[in-house]
Automatic annotation (TrEMBL):
Protein's UniProt name: Phosphoribosylamine--glycine ligase
Pfam families: GARS_A (PF01071), GARS_C (PF02843), GARS_N (PF02844)
PANTHER family per UniProt: PHOSPHORIBOSYLAMINE--GLYCINE LIGASE, PHOSPHORIBOSYLAMINE--GLYCINE LIGASE, CHLOROPLASTIC
GO MF annotations, alphabetized: ATP binding; metal ion binding; phosphoribosylamine-glycine ligase activity
Catalytic activity: 5-phospho-beta-D-ribosylamine + glycine + ATP = N(1)-(5-phospho-beta-D-ribosyl)glycinamide + ADP + phosphate + H(+)
Annotated EC: 6.3.4.13
Annotated InterPro entries: ATP-grasp (IPR011761), ATP_grasp_subdomain_1 (IPR013815), PreATP-grasp_dom_sf (IPR016185), PRibGlycinamid_synth_ATP-grasp (IPR020561), PRibGlycinamide_synth (IPR000115), PRibGlycinamide_synth_C-dom (IPR020560), PRibGlycinamide_synth_C_sf (IPR037123), PRibGlycinamide_synth_CS (IPR020559)
Gene3D superfamilies assigned to the protein according to its UniProt record, in alphabetical order: 3.40.50.20, ATP-grasp fold, A domain, ATP-grasp fold, B domain, Phosphoribosylglycinamide synthetase, C-terminal domain
Cofactor list: Mn(2+); Mg(2+)
Organism: Kocuria tytonis
Family of this protein: Belongs to the GARS family.
Length: 454
């Protein structure tokens, strides 16, 4: 089959890499793609948020399947236009994508489906924001209600800072969500759906803060790893039954069936698993790690979801070991990133065993130089027999890459590789491991909603 992947980033490059391994996929195209994607498949410049343009390209290519990567085209109705044109599409309709596009709507759906989540107040009134602060107490969790590319959330013990963020969102004409703080480590779980059936992938954990030790502002994600051996037994099955399936059922009941991937952002708290947020697409950079471990052919999975024939009894096959993704970010990210800096060393990075580079914010100059074009420029993805080996390979790989002013976290998957993740309610670590946790401040990343995507 011929597949068109819509989107410009690392998530799309990771999907394309997996699709190219599928013997049933004869051809892959991307729009608009990036410099790394262009090395692998034909790319087509277009506005990914223009439904008519996407439909026209899909028809021109005679695509058997269109995969919509980012959230913005979904909210713009690209999947609706493709469905109306009779073209199979992996990605939800505009209405179903509101599960990500509006946090207040997501809370409404969760309430109707009896899904466990944090208490929250959605409002456009600063007085109600202050009342919610009084009700929930510190740390204060304030979220922009709309899409914010992972940077619309502030979690702080400083009430003045929390109120300032709320005012910024309201002054921009939007609404905010004030939530209670969730303790415990976070988990990302992707669940494929054809509108009725659900099939979970392997859980992952990402690193939202820009600096080591979960310090600094939120980003779109600075790294990720899978699997999560520290999760309690039956975790994935429990999330499917208590979270994913009820939400998919509720959206179908409302007449807006969800076809695509439901990203469940979860906190493993002292009161059980709670939903932090939903996304209507694969997360970045978790996708890079999860697809690196997926042995089952991706093309068939996505086409079956698009055509409404996703069998829940289909066993997915996973590679042994672990995968780690480390994001290299541009100078000044997550502020206004500097663009146009030359990137070198990618071939040397890919010579490390079981290691490759996924492009995100890259482009080619007229002279043929590879340069940065976004905040998160690329990710080095590595597999290993375990997390320790995957980390070692990944960090050796990223050391080969040169990009002036760039930065990356050095602690991606470190706590997990050393057995230092604490799950609330489980026996506490002790001895040297616990001492190391206290020293590093990274034991299990118990920042709850602090790390989430917006």
């Amino acid at each position: 089959m011929k597949v068109l992947v819509v989107g410009p980033g690392g998530r799309e490059h990771a999907m394309i890499t997996s699709l190219l391994r599928d013997p049933h996929v004869s051809e892959v195209h991307a729009a608009p793609g990036n410099a790394g994607i262009a090395q692998d498949v034909p790319v087509h410049p277009l506005n990914a948020q223009d439904p008519e343009a996407v439909v026209a390209l899909a028809r021109e290519l005679a695509a058997d399947l269109v995969v919509v990567g980012p959230e913005a085209p979904l909210v713009a109705g690209v999947a609706d236009a493709l469905s109306e044109a009779g073209i199979p599409v992996f990605g939800p309709s505009r209405e179903a994508a509101r599960i990500e596009g509006s946090k207040a709507f997501a809370k409404e759906v969760m309430a109707a489906a009896d899904v466990p989540t944090a208490r929250a107040v959605a409002t456009s009134d600063i007085a109600r924001v202050r009342a919610a602060f009084d009700e929930f107490g510190a740390p204060y969790v304030v979220k922009d209600d709309g899409l914010a590319a992972g940077k619309g959330v502030v979690v702080t013990a400083d009430r003045d800072r929390a109120e300032a963020h709320a005012r910024e969102c309201l002054d921009a004409g939007g609404a905010v969500l004030v939530e209670e703080f969730l303790d415990g480590p976070e988990v990302s779980l992707f669940v494929l759906s054809d509108g009725t059936h659900v099939v979970p992938l392997q859980p992952a954990q990402d690193f939202k803060r820009v600096r080591d030790g979960d310090q600094g502002p939120n980003t779109g994600g600075m790294g990720a790893y899978t699997p999560l051996d520290w999760l309690p037994e039956g975790f994935t099955e429990d999330v499917v039954e208590r979270v994913a399936r009820p939400v998919i059922d509720e959206l179908r009941r409302r007449g807006t069936p969800f076809t695509g991937v439901l990203y469940c952002g979860l906190a493993v708290t002292s009161r059980g698993t709670r939903v932090i947020e939903f996304n209507a697409r694969f997360g970045d950079p978790e996708t890079q790690s999860v697809l690196a471990m997926l042995e089952t052919q991706l093309g068939g999975l996505l086409l079956d979801a698009a055509r409404g024939r996703l069998a829940e009894d289909r066993p997915l096959q996973w590679r042994p070991g672990a995968a780690v993704s480390i994001v290299l970010a541009a100078h000044n990210y997550p502020g206004a990133p500097r663009k146009g800096d030359v990137i070198t060393g990618l071939q040397d990075a890919s010579r490390e065993e079981e290691t490759w580079v996924v492009h995100a914010g890259t482009e080619r100059t007229e002279a043929g130089e590879l340069v940065s074009s976004g905040g998160r420029v690329l990710a080095v993805v590595s597999r290993g027999a375990d997390l320790r080996q995957a980390r070692e390979r990944g960090y050796r790989g990223i050391e080969h890459i040169t990009l002036e002013g760039s930065h990356y976290r050095t602690d991606v998957a470190l706590a997990a590789s050393e057995g230092r993740i604490e799950v609330p309610g489980a026996p506490a670590a002790s001895g040297p491991a616990r001492a190391a946790e206290r020293a590093s401040g990274t034991d299990g990343r118990p920042a709850g909603a602090a790390e989430e995507q917006a």
